[in-house]
Design brief:
The complex is a heterodimer of chains A (214) and B (92).
Chain A lengths: L2 H21 L8 H29 L3 H6 L10 H4 L5 H23 L4 H28 L3 H14 L8 H7 L17 H10 L1 H5 L6
Helix pairs in contact in A: 1-2, 2-6, 5-6, 5-7
Chain B lengths: L1 E7 L7 E7 L3 H13 L6 E6 L25 H12 L5
C-alpha cells in the first residue's frame, strides 16, 4: 500500500472510530443541548472518515464501505487514543480536546500537501473542525478547575501524542500548554481489546450477510 | 440560562425566531445554537440572545375603539368605489 493511502487510512480510521465513540453519548449526554451538539459533531467525524475512505478507495480499487467495515481489527490504523472506551464525561471531553488540538496540527500539515486532492479535502474538513475545536475549547475552559478533568488530561496525554507524527509532538505539547514528556503509549495498528469489542459491534450487520448489496 | 435563537435562512432575509437553547453561558449557547439550528445548513446566520434581554410588550388597550388606527378599521374598498363612481370610471 502506498504511503499516501496508508496516511489517508490512518486519519479516516481515527475519524471513524472517534465518531463512533462519541456517538455512544447520544441519548445520555449531560444535557439535551449537549446531546444534540455532541451527536452532530460525532456525525461530522464519520462524514470526514467517509470522504477520506473514498479518496483512498479510489486508488486502492475498493470502496469506502469495504474500507470502513470489511477489514479485520488488525488492519485498522487508528491511534490508541480513539480506541479507548470512555464512559465518563471528564475523560470524554479530555479526549475530545486533546484529539481536536492534535487534529488541527495534522490538518494544517495536510493542507500544505503537494497532492491537490488531499490538500483540498483537508481544507474542507478543517472548515468544519473549527467548530469542533470551539466546542472542545469551551468545555476545556469550563472544566479547567475540575480535578476529574485535570486528571483525565494527565492520563490521556500519552495517548494523544500518538495521534500526530513524531516531529509534531513537541508542538502539540506547546499548543496544549502541557510541558510533558512526548513519549506515546501504544502505536497504530495494535488493536486493544476495547477496539476489538467496538469492531465486533460496528461490523456486526455487514458480517451478518457477507457480500450483500445494501 | 435560556437563550432565544433567531435564524436567517439566506443572506438579506429577515431573521425569524427558530427556538431556544439552554446553556450555562453565552459561549455554550453559541455552540449549541450552531449545532441545533445550523448543522443541516438551514441557516446562514444566527442571533443568540439571552431571554432576559428580550423586552416583551403585551399591553395594547383600545378602550375607545379607535378603529381608524387599525388597518381593518377603514374600508378602502368602499371608499375607492365611491371615488370611482364620482369620477365616472367603470369599476374593474
Amino acid at each position: 500500500m502506498s504511503e499516501r493511502a496508508q496516511r489517508l487510512l490512518e486519519i479516516a480510521d481515527d475519524e471513524l472510530i472517534l465518531g463512533w465513540r462519541d456517538s455512544e453519548w447520544t441519548g445520555i449526554a449531560p444535557s439535551l443541548e449537549e446531546d444534540v451538539a455532541f451527536s452532530s459533531i460525532a456525525q461530522n467525524e464519520i462524514g470526514h472518515a467517509r470522504a477520506l475512505y473514498e479518496l483512498a478507495a479510489h486508488h486502492l480499487g475498493t470502496t469506502a464501505d469495504e474500507l470502513a467495515f470489511d477489514r479485520s481489527p488488525e488492519e485498522y490504523r487508528c491511534a490508541p487514543l480513539v480506541q479507548l472506551r470512555r464512559v465518563d464525561w471528564a475523560h470524554t471531553i479530555a479526549r475530545h480536546w486533546l484529539y481536536e488540538t492534535a487534529d488541527e496540527l495534522r490538518l494544517a500539515r495536510l493542507k500544505q500537501s503537494d497532492d491537490p486532492e488531499v490538500a483540498g479535502l483537508a481544507a474542507k474538513m478543517d472548515r468544519e473542525e473549527v467548530y469542533h475545536r470551539l466546542h472542545a475549547q469551551m468545555w476545556a475552559d469550563h472544566l479547567r478547575d475540575e480535578p476529574r478533568f485535570r486528571s483525565a488530561v494527565e492520563e490521556l496525554w500519552p495517548y494523544a501524542v500518538g495521534v500526530v507524527d513524531e516531529d509534531l509532538r513537541q508542538a502539540l505539547a506547546q499548543r496544549l500548554n502541557l510541558a510533558r514528556d512526548t513519549s506515546s503509549i501504544g502505536e497504530r495498528g495494535d488493536p486493544s481489546d476495547e477496539f476489538r469489542a467496538l469492531w465486533d459491534e460496528m461490523t456486526m450487520v455487514r458480517r451478518s450477510v457477507p457480500g450483500a448489496t445494501w | 440560562m435560556i437563550f432565544e435563537v433567531f435564524r436567517q435562512e439566506k443572506k438579506g432575509a429577515a431573521f425569524t425566531h427558530a427556538g431556544s437553547v439552554a446553556a450555562p453561558d453565552a459561549v455554550f449557547a453559541e455552540a449549541f445554537a450552531h449545532e441545533q439550528y445550523g448543522r443541516r445548513h438551514e441557516s446562514v446566520a444566527l442571533w443568540v440572545v439571552p431571554r432576559d434581554a428580550v423586552r416583551e410588550v403585551t399591553d395594547f388597550p383600545d378602550e375607545l375603539s379607535k378603529t381608524y388606527h387599525r388597518v381593518d378599521g377603514y374600508s378602502l374598498k368602499a371608499k375607492l368605489k365611491e371615488a370611482r363612481e364620482r369620477a365616472g370610471a367603470a369599476s374593474p
